[in-house]
Specification:
- There is one protein chain.
- With about 110 residues, the protein is an alpha/beta fold.
- It has one domain: Rossmann fold (3-Layer(aba) Sandwich), CATH 3.40.50.2300.
- The protein is about 45% helix and about 20% strand.
- The longest helix is centred in the middle third of the chain and has 13 residues.
- The radius of gyration is 13 Å and the shape is globular.
- It starts with a helix and ends in a 5-residue tail after the last strand.
Length: about 110
C-alpha cells in the first residue's frame, strides 16, 4: 500500500528545522506512539520515504527496542500508558552508548 505524495508531504511539513535535518541524516527511526493508527501511519510514510522503522506502543517497549539496537531518531509521543514519554526520555538518557535524537510529538486529547 502506498500513500499519496500529499500525505507524505504533510508529515514532512510537520518535521521542520533541526528535526528535518536530523531526519535527512537518519537511517533508522523509532516511532513511539500508543495510538495504533497513528503509529502505523507514521511508520508507513517513513518507510515509503526510505527509512528503516521500528515501532513501540509505549516507553517501556521503546527502551527494549533501543537496548536491542540503537536508532538515529526517536519520534516520541509524551502521553502514553505503561511508561510515558517523559519517563522514557529520562531512562533513555541514562543508558550508556550512542543515543538517537528525540523529536517530541504531542496530540490533543480526544
Amino acid at each position: 500500500m502506498s500513500l499519496p505524495g500529499e500525505a507524505s508531504g504533510r508529515l514532512r511539513d510537520r518535521l521542520h528545522g533541526t528535526t528535518l535535518q536530523l531526519m535527512m541524516a537518519a537511517e533508522h527511526v523509532l516511532v513511539v506512539e500508543d495510538h495504533e493508527e497513528i503509529r502505523e501511519f507514521v511508520a508507513l510514510v517513513l518507510e515509503n520515504e526510505g527509512y528503516r522503522v521500528t515501532t513501540a506502543s509505549n516507553g517501556a517497549l521503546a527502551l527494549e527496542e533501543v537496548t536491542r539496537e540503537p536508532v538515529d531518531v526517536v519520534l516520541l509521543d509524551m502521553r502514553m500508558p505503561v511508561m510515558d514519554g517523559w519517563a522514557f526520555a529520562e531512562a533513555y538518557r541514562r543508558q550508556p552508548g550512542p543515543h538517537g535524537h528525540a523529536h517530541v510529538q504531542q496530540h490533543a486529547k480526544r
